[in-house]
Recover the amino acids of this structure.
């Protein structure tokens, strides 16, 4: 296991995280990256890494999760962005170099990057 | 695939799809014996003997989205190219173990690559499970069990941004300590 000091960090972090967790779960942004064989071969892991990097850079607190293949393999890497009260947008062929634009436009400015959209689900609830 | 860690991610995704709640990833590097062993063991739903025999055939897959499954055949080819082999043991209701061996020094052996990225991609899976990762290389060792991390975290999920950053840096540091610069 990691060093004791690192685990101490984790305990401290738990206390910090518990305070803001409820707010985020209700209003948060959820980003989903396809991680089937097709996604992995198309570079989805690197795309996810780029997403985590951008989120950290702009201190955007979004939940990032990975899922298996959804059958649109030719459009991998697929990235899905879901924000409370907004339609769920699926972007296709998202290479790591496209990630900064996507994060800036979609998450910071609130504009959907139309030319990369491969799917759209209306607002739920 | 360019890196063995991508094959590993692929097998981890198989385990997750198979409903595993606990996955063990063991990586053992022995430079003296010129040997690399990768073991991925899960407690997923497992496969019948017949399916376990067939999965190395690219035209056999459990998926319904299309009719070919390339993950394991590609991993097997990568091992066989390097005087190694890929073995699968599976039992319905118990789980599956994938074991891949390589000649460490073989000229065709792909580097292990970004193992931290692979682990992050699997840990952040929408389906909740725990990964126990153990890596040894010439006497050095690093171990991380997400079950342990979860115990410390209580109700805070692993996908919490702050936890995510902790995991990324812990994995990066751990991997750096186990892998010497000339062994990747």
């Amino acid at each position: 296991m990691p060093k004791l000091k690192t685990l101490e960090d984790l305990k401290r972090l738990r206390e910090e995280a518990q305070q803001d967790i409820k707010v985020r779960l209700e209003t948060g942004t959820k980003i989903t990256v396809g991680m089937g064989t097709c996604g992995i071969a198309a570079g989805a892991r690197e795309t996810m890494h780029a997403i985590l990097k951008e989120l950290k850079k702009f201190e955007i607190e979004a939940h990032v999760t990975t899922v298996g293949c959804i059958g649109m393999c030719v459009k991998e890497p697929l990235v899905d962005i879901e924000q409370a009260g907004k339609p769920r947008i699926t972007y296709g062929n998202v290479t790591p170099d496209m990630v900064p634009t996507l994060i800036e436009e979609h998450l910071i400015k609130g504009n959907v990057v139309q030319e990369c959209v491969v799917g759209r689900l209306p607002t739920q609830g | 695939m360019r890196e063995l860690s991508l094959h590993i991610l692929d097998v981890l995704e198989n385990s997750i799809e198979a409903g595993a709640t606990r996955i063990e990833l063991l990586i053992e590097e022995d430079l003296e014996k010129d040997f690399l062993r990768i073991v991925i063991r899960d407690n997923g739903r497992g496969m019948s003997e017949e399916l376990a025999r067939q999965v190395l055939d690219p035209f056999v897959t459990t998926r319904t989205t299309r009719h070919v499954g390339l993950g394991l055949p590609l991993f097997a080819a990568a091992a066989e190219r390097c005087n190694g082999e890929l073995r699968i043991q599976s039992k319905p209701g118990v789980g599956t173990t994938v074991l891949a061996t390589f000649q460490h020094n073989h000229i065709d052996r792909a580097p292990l690559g970004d193992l931290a990225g692979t682990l992050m991609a699997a840990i952040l899976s929408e389906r909740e499970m725990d990964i126990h990762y153990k890596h040894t290389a010439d006497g050095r060792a690093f171990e991380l069990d997400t079950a342990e991390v979860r115990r410390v975290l209580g109700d805070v999920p692993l996908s919490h941004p702050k936890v995510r950053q902790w995991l990324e840096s812990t994995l990066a540091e751990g991997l750096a300590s186990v892998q010497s610069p000339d062994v990747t």
User: Anything to note?
Assistant: Chain B touches chain A through 44 residues (CB under 8 Å).
